[in-house]
Write a structure and sequence with these properties.
Length: 302
């Protein structure tokens, strides 16, 4: 009896394997056999660096390896070399690959001190200059905006504090197409809304099933765009630039080049926010370090 029961369970298990996703199981097992050699690592890290400025070091080699194996699983390709051949020939496949290796962690009102400095120091200073020049448009760029929480936070805050006749426009850019689509959609699941003050939630979002949707009038102030920070954006005369928690993935050379491009895209007497764990210390840049009561940031004076 015992033997036949065991036999029955073995048969049952085998039939389940066949009926439910044995393919993907085999693929998972197969991935263990995929070779990611030192030479592959060098080839991929050079390609990623050249195209995006993102610097994979040997400490995060395993992250790259697991993301590559995920891509093999998705595309059905059998070797790392075959995948390399595809992404170096097909631009869209390469964009998808870059998307898969970026870290898109973000949240609304991330590092509140920056938004306090924006409200109490930067905006009053920018408006002083605008008044002198008669220009009423405040131009902002959220570079490396991920899924949109950063530009929406800026938009909500400026909608609260900018007095008429001043207006604002925000460009929000990233190399992750998936993230940009989330931003454009403007829907955030309940868990992602953490950190949005209640009065903002009531005023700027609609409650929908499973989450919240940002109002169209806020959405219309933000232009989401694909842009790789390795290139010039073509933007000019910006009053405020946020590029937080992006440069951390670059090495010194690509970081300096990106920072100098930001400088060129900004108006005189404009302000530059980077992540609170990032710094331009020791870098060859014309930005001035600025310490406010709320947070530290950078200024282009001339
Ligand atoms: C950790 S998120 C930061 C999001 C937001 N700025 C914040 O601080 O919450 C970093 C973002 O930078 C983007 N990124 C990385 N390299 C980039 C590049 N070369 N050009 C444009 N965006 C890049 C990633 O796709 C990712 O969405």
């Amino acid at each position: 009896m015992k033997v036949s029961l065991t036999f029955f369970f073995i048969l049952y298990f085998l039939s389940k394997l066949q009926l439910t996703g044995s393919d993907s199981l085999l693929k998972v097992i197969g991935m263990a056999d995929v070779v990611f050699s030192d030479a592959d690592f060098e080839r991929f890290r050079n390609l990623i660096y050249k195209e995006s400025g993102i610097n994979f070091t040997s400490t995060n080699r395993s992250i790259l390896e697991s993301r590559l194996k995920e891509q093999l699983r998705e595309t059905g390709l059998a070797t790392i070399q075959a995948y390399y051949d595809v992404i170096t020939k097909d631009k869209e496949a390469f964009k998808k690959f870059l998307d898969s290796i970026t870290t898109n962690l973000t949240r609304f009102f991330r590092n509140q001190a920056h938004f306090d400095a924006l409200e109490h120091y930067v905006i009053p200073e920018v408006l002083k200059n605008k008044k002198a020049s008669g220009n009423t448009l405040v131009k902002i760029w959220s570079a490396g905006c991920s899924t949109g929480e950063e530009p929406y936070t800026i938009a909500m805050l400026l909608s609260e504090i900018l007095p008429p006749p001043y207006k604002y426009e925000i460009t929000a850019s990233d190399i992750s197409l998936k993230s940009l689509m989330v931003g454009k959609e403007g829907f955030y699941a309940d868990a992602r809304i953490v950190g949005v003050p209640d009065n903002y939630l009531k005023k700027y979002f609609d409650k929908v099933e499973g989450g919240y949707k940002i109002h169209d009038d806020i959405k219309s102030r933000i232009k989401f765009d694909y842009h790789n920070l390795q290139n010039d954006s073509g933007l000019r005369g910006l009053d405020i630039v946020f590029c937080r928690n992006v440069l951390i993935y670059f090495d010194d050379v690509s970081m300096t080049a990106a920072v100098n491009r930001f400088y060129d895209s900004m108006a005189s007497k404009s302000y530059f926010f980077i992540g609170h764990s990032e710094s331009l210390f020791g870098m060859d840049t014309k930005f001035e370090f600025l310490k406010t009561q709320w947070a530290t940031l950078y200024r282009k004076y001339i």
